[in-house]
Amino acid sequence: MEDGDGDKALRKIGEAFKEIASAVNSQTVDIEVAPFSHACSLVSPLFGCLGIAFKFAEMDYVAKVNDLAKTSSSISTLSALLDHDIEGNCVRKAGSNSRNLLRVKRGLDMVRVLFEHMLASDDSSLRNPASTAYAEVLAPHHGWAIRKAVAAGMYVLPTKAQLLARLNEDEATARIQMQNYINASAPVILYINKLFLTRELGIDW
After folding, report:
1. Using CB atoms within 10 A as the burial measure, which of 97, 140, 144, 173 is most buried?
2. Which residue pairs, CB below 8 angstroms and at least 24 apart, start in 130-137?
3. How far, CA to CA in Å, does 55 sit from each of 7, 62, 86, 149, 163?
4. Nearest-CA neighbor of 37 among 74, 1, 2, 5?
5. What's the pLDDT at 53?
6. What is the mean pLDDT of residues 153-180?
7. Is 4 a residue whose pLDDT tops 60?
8. Given a cut of 80, is residue 183 above it in pLDDT?
């Protein structure tokens, strides 16, 4: 990434999710698909910076965020998105907006857990934080072949310093922005879970 304060990915992510979280916390408006998909798109470079271990996750996440962004032209809110699929009896079908939303939510949650463990450790290696985040959030939904490929990729993860350099961040500012994302993404993730659970759609599929 280019130098310059405007290109600091973590700050952009934190600011975007703070806005989404403010809407969630207000409890007066439904979350709109367009700003949500834009905020999610800012997270995409993180997967790429983590290297081959998260290549599948990156490809899957980016594709589904792009699909949600396209959907925003015809469906305005996340709740309407789910209701539209329920009416069409296609919630669990491959390529459905509901399925895309659930998988994007898992990507956001994995990054949240990764950041939590990075902040809790002084280790320069990302292997333990990344392995824990993957095992907790994504592994239960991946087949054996993908889990094996991810495990192998964990040995060639960048160091914490290398990751921050790729994101154009120094450790002091990165810690602040990672905490901002953790704080802002948590209510957003809970909001999406609630959308599924109140409609009795489940979230473990």
Report:
1. 97
2. 130/50, 130/53, 130/54, 130/154, 130/157, 134/53, 134/54, 134/57, 134/110, 136/110, 137/106, 137/109, 137/110, 137/113
3. 23, 11, 31, 10, 15
4. 74
5. 87
6. 92
7. no
8. yes
pLDDT digits (tens, 9 = 90+) for 35-90: 999 999 999 999 999 988 888 889 999 999 999 999 999 999 999 999 999 999 99
Q: What is the DSSP letter of 136?
A: I
Q: Which residue has the tokens 């669990």?
A: 92
- In sequence order, the 6+-apart residues with CB closer than 8 A to the CB of 106 are 137, 138, 141
Predicted confidence at residue 7, as pLDDT, reads 65
Distance CA 40, CA 20 (A): 11
Q: Mark out the alpha helices in the chain (DSSP H runs).
A: 9-26, 33-49, 55-71, 78-87, 97-120, 127-133, 144-153, 160-166, 171-198
Cα-Cα-Cα-Cα torsion 130, 143, 182, 188, nearest 10 degrees, comes to 170
25-30: list long-range contacts, CB under 8 Å, 24+ apart.
25/187, 30/77, 30/78, 30/79, 30/80
Question: At 1, is the secondary structure helix, strand, or coil?
Answer: coil
